[in-house]
Structure formats: C-alpha cells, structure tokens
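Summary for the funding panel

The consortium committed to producing paired sequence-structure records for every protein in the target list. Below we show the first two records in order, beginning with the earlier of the two.
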Amino acid sequence: MPRRKKLPPIAFMSYVRLDDEHEDGRLTQFRTRLAGEVRMQTGLDFPIFQDRNDIKWGQNWKSRIEEGIDASTFLIPIITPSFFNSDACREELERFQEIETELGRNDLILPIYYVDCPVLNNETLRAKDELAQLIATHQHTDWRPYRFEPFTSPQIGMQFAQMAVQIRDTLGTKTTTAKSTRKRTTRKHIGDGRRASTAKRRDSIEPSYPPEAEADVEPEGGGRAEPAKLVVDQMHRGDYVTISEAIDAAKPGYKILVRPGFYQEALVIDKPLEIIGDGELDEIVVEAKDQSAVLFKTTMGRISNLTLRTIGDKELLAVSIGSGRLLLDGCDITCRVVGGVAIHSGADPRLRGNRIHGNGGSGVFIYPNGQGTLEDNEIFSNAGNGVLIKSGANPTVRRNRVYEGESTGMFITGGGLGIIEDNDIFENKNAGISVSEKGNPTVRRNRITKNGYQAVWVFDGGGGTFEDNDLRDNERGAWKISGDSEANVVRNNNQE
C-alpha cells in the first residue's frame, strides 16, 4: 500500500441538490458557516466542497482517493429521506466508509441529521439498509430542531461551535495535557438507547485543565447531541466553586450549570457558552460591586435562570451586551444606580421571559445601533424609562409588560427606530410611549392604558406609525403631538 501523505484539512458535503433548492440555499449557507467556524476554532482554512458538478469537487475527491485519504479529510452527509434514494450520495458514503475502515477510524464521517428519516428511527427498517446502519454508528449532529431557526440564533451558533471543536479535535490540535486523568465525553449515536457510563467526577475543585463533562446518550430514534457540561457549586460538589473559574476553563460551546449560591463576582463572557442556573431563580444570585454583573463580548451565548445584580456607586448597568447574539432568558435583573440591560455597538441579543425591575435608570437601554428582540419580559418599577431606544437603535419589542415606572414606559429618541407590538404598557407615571428628535418607531397592537400622562406623546420632531393600539383610559388622554411632529405621525385604527 502506498504511504499516505499528510494532507491539508478538507471536507466534502454529500447532499441532494433538490433538498438545497427546496430550502432556498440553506444547505449552502450551512456549509459556509461551518467552514468559517472551523477556521475560527483552528486558525486553518477548511474548504468544504459541495457541488459535484464543480471541477474542484472531482479534482480534490480524485486526488484524495489516489493519494490516500487521511485523518484530515471528512465527509459531511446531509441526512434526509432523499439521501437514501440518491445513488451518488450512497456511493460517496460507501467509498468513504471503506477508507475509514482501512484507517481504523470512526470519526471522519460527520452526519448532519437534517430531516426525519424512518429508515433511521425504525430498528426493523434500519436492519435492512447497510448505509442506515453505518450512519447510526457514527457521531452525528441532530439538526432537526434547528431546521427552521435563523442562522443568527444563539442555539445555532452553539451547534456550529460544537461541530467545529469536534473537527478540530479529530485533526489533532486539541491539547492533551493530563490526558490520562480526564473524563471522556460520552458520544451519542442514532438509534442507541442505552445510557452510557461516565468516569467518576474528580474531587479537585481547582484543576489545571477543564474537566470533560458528561453527555447523555440519546433515546431510541435519535436526538441532538448534548454539549459538554461543567458544574459550579459553592459547596465543593461540582467542578468549580466560582462561575468565573468555569468560564475561564470552558471551551467554546460548553454548558455551565450553576447551583444555588451567592456568587460575588462579575462575569465576563468572551467565548460562546451557555450559563444556566440549576435551581430556583431567587437562590442563584450573581452580585457584582462597581462592575456589570455580566459583560458579554463574544459572538453567541446563553444566560438563563440567574438573579443578576450590580451594586456600588459606579454608573454601570447590570448586563452590558456589546456584541454578538446573547440569549438572555428567565433572569431577574437589577442595578440600583443606573439600569438593567444595555444593548449597544450593533449587538443583536434575545431577551425573553426576564424580570427587569428596581433599576436606578432605564430597565433596558438600547443605543448606538443596538438591535435585538425583547419578548415576554416583565419590565417594571424602574426609576427611569422602562425601555429607552436611541442613537439609531432598531430593536423588536413584543409581548412585554412595561408598568409602574417612575417615568415613561417606552421612550424612542435620537433617531431611534424599532418595532413595538403586542405589549401591555400601563400605570407608568409619565406617558406610555414618548417619541422625540427623529425617533420613528412602528407601534402596533399595544395596550397603552392607565398611564399618568398621555398614551402617546410625540414632540421635538419625533414621528412614527401607530396602528391598531388601545389608547384608552390614560390620565391625559390618548395623544399629545407637537406642531413640529404632526406631519411625521401616521395613525390608523387606534382605540382612543
């Protein structure tokens, strides 16, 4: 057998073209995002060839076969029912499996389970198809829950990061320090319903390397792979006793579970991670003095079920989001000095189901080109505005309850935009919504009632479109619009 050459990393995406056309090119986008994420995780270019009609596909596939495919070559099959009916896809999978067997490997075929396939889920059907059996024995990424999610969502970003880390580790760039003492991550296989055992948790709470975390084996019929986990426990029954230590040790894509405790620290998130409270919300408290409780400055992430507080005299917000897309959900957020959440510098987070209250200024402050989506939050009892949108910011604010504030429910100013829909804005001491200085939101289907001033106050050259809102029962009526703003305001079908 000819000696195999060490070749640069490369991958081939095996898929059915009609599937990509049906998805409006989403599989092509998938390829681009994955190649970019691998480059970010490894520092190496990672071309993924896709089009069988492209001469580069044939040239590279042929050269790899002739020179000998090694551990730097991957096949990424996109698994749909059509895949099993494609002769070309089946041939590629069979050929690659032969080479994988020759190398004694089982990690060079990386299936993406994209659309539900009975031949994989049903043991009887799977037993009749050798390729279905082959796919079932390989690590896979279950993309079925994410098929209709935007590629910009935090969950999607986490999945790409995990796949990129898997490829990086297969390429051999993973640090192997203290290898013999680490726990091994249990991998999942399609159709394997057994629960795999994991190594015993280490007793040390200050390891020199991040502990590998457990991942459950999926149930019969498949399921998405769980991210590796680290546990933070102040009673020394986890991997770390502070959240910051766990963040420093975690690899991109890890999940950090935080058990009940009073954590006096500031969290700086500089890599894609999930940080999730594992217990009752009011028993998991992160309190930072003269610092933001959370400073988010990476591409993707999730923070869930934590009580986040900032105390002290400095003018800071409890959560500062200055980049990327953070999913902030189910948290309780307070800063007595300034405000609850700042979204700025073009960041595009998702805030869902949070309690943002008792802040010294605005509950949510969105400024210089900040974006984001605020959904189903309780924003109340803040000394400033419930939501302040300014300086070209353009968020979507829907289905929130904004109430009992000392000022305006929502204030859009300084060229701020935004879609404001289906919210309850009530019992604020000033107006329900105020717009000024070239602010121009779209405001529709909101209930803006029982506020201390008007439902809507537009002044100093503000404007906006107001449609299908309930503006009844406010202390000073439905509207106050200044003469220099009247021409900028569109009103349709509002109840007054």
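The next record, for a separate protein in the list, is shown here:
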Amino acid sequence: MKQMNGFGDDAARWQAVVQRDHHADGVFYFSVQSTGVYCRPSCAARLALRKNVRFHATWADAERAGFRPCKRCKPTQAPLGEQHAALVAQACRQMEQSEQPPSLQALAQTAGISAFHFHRVFKAFTGVTPKAYADAHRAKRMREELPHSTTVTNAIYQAGFNSSGRFYAKSSALLGMKPKEFRAGGKNACIRFAVRECWLGSVLVAATEKGICAILLGDDPAALARDLQDRFPRAEIAGGGEQFEKTLAGVIATLESPTQEFNLPLDVRGTAFQQRVWQALRQIPVGTTASYAGVAEKIGSPKSVRAVAGACAANALAVVIPCHRVVRGDGGLSGYRWGVERKRALLKREGGSDDAKPSI
C-alpha cells in the first residue's frame, strides 16, 4: 500500500479529489459523511462538499470508521488503471495465442466492456489499435515461420492469415521484400551499398529499391560490410555505382549538417512498436534531447521505457533516425549503438550544450 503522505496534507488531498486525480488512487481514500460511503480519489461521482469529506490512509480505515464502499468507483478493487492494464495484457495474450486474430467484439466481450471502450483503453495503453497489434504479431510469426516452413503457403497459414491473397497484399510492408526472398535470407533481393569516410569515421549506406535501409557507423569499413552481409546472407549485395552517388551524398550531407532537411526515401524495417518509437525520434528537434521515459510517454506507453531503449539499440539508420538524441533522465549518454563518443560529438554538432539533460 502506498503511503498517504505522498499527497502532503489535507489541502493537497482535497485538490486531488477535486481534479479526480487517478495518480492518487491507492494513496488515500476519502469518505463523505452525508452519504456514508467512501471512494477512491478519482471517483466520477458528484463532488461532495468539503465540510463533509474525511481522508483515510486505507479503505480498511474508512470501513472501521463506519463507511461503506462506493458502488461506482469500487474502492476495494484494484485502481482503474491497473484493471485496464490487466485487461490489455489479457487481450494481447488472447491475440498471440489464437490461430486467427479475434474480432474486436470478441476481445471486448472477454474484457467485459463495450467494443468502443475496449478499443479506446487498448490504444491508450499500447499506442496502437487492437488490429495493428494483431497485424504486427502475425507479421512477427510470419518472419519466424518462413525460414523453417516447407512452403510459403504453409507459413502464411501458420502465421494466422486466413487467405494467401490477404497476406500477399501486405507482404512488402510486413517483410520489406517478397516472401520467397525473405525465406531465402534475402535471395534475389538487390541491396546496393557504399562506404565513405566522414567526420564520424567510416559510414556505410545501403539501399533497396524502396529506399535507404541502413546507415552504419564505425571504424572498420570491412566490419560494416560484414554487418550488412549478415543481415541478408543470401541477398545480392553490390557496390552502389555512379547512380548511388546521389543517395550517398545526401546521407553524408546530413551527417555533416544535421540541421538540414532529409528528403531521401527510407526502407525502415521493424516491429510495430519499433516503428512508433523511431517515428517519435524523428520528431525530436535538432539541438534538443529526450529521455527514454519521455519517448515512452510520447508514444502512449509510459511503462515501456526498457522497450524504447531496445528500439533505439535496434535502429540501423544512424542520425536520420536520431536515437543519439535520447539520453538518460540524468543526462547520461550511455546506450548508443555506435559509441558514446559519437553520440556526444553528434549532440555537440547539433548545437546542444555539454549538459545533455533531456529537454523533452
């Protein structure tokens, strides 16, 4: 049980009741003398007169004082946020364990709330709709099934797609290439690349027909080339040639001057959650930083701080997706895939101060 003194004094507690502050739920309870009931601070019932309100550290204290629980906010149950979190977790497990994605109505019925309310609660906690979550999970299953299945068709149905036509309509978005190419480790896919030196050291730029798929930084050009090869062991990886020079020049220009707008097409591959994180990173203004917790809040998943850090580490598009602008809450620069010194240099280049404490 949380400590009641987390809300200072009776004035602060009363303000929490007036604002129906759900953060105070479980911290204290209040009773209303005129009705004989006690509530959680976020109760949506009509506000009582201050003179009739008393505060209690626990619901048991309120009952010992002779009050009965409110039928509306049900103060003896877990706080509403925890109840919703449990419903969302249950729905995620239901989608992950079902051969076919359950309908919104089926998920809501299991949760015991209306479809409209369930949809709103799910998106508030995960940042994506139930359909987007189910699609992302099926895409993940598809990526896992393809390398081991005897045929692409078998993998399609094992992943939960009820028709091959529906899958093929989305295959490029799900896999970044044709299913047979993905299953073959990138066989027949053409990835062009080039390595140049810049002020950050060696930079490898690679692109598919859709757009730039990797911008890798390091000290050893050969190691960068091996990294790209490991990602697509059976792809056709070729030198960029003259036509690739414009793409390469655009990336180098961005590395040299990160304040300029980047307009080249990208081929960004990742899970639905990673995509949300990377999109949020691209919205961090040049010269500012954000904390991992701040990014988690921005995408609507405040409890996903570690997952945000994992998405930053999985980013393969250095600088263009600016994971270097994400720092610890105390301003620490740990956790950069291409080295802390490069992270520090990039922030300095962008006009940030030596104090990297997050501004967002």
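Regarding this second record: The beta strands are 29-32, 37-39, 53-56, 68-69, 190-198, 201-207, 212-218, 236-239, 290-291, 326-327. The longest strand covers residues 190-198.
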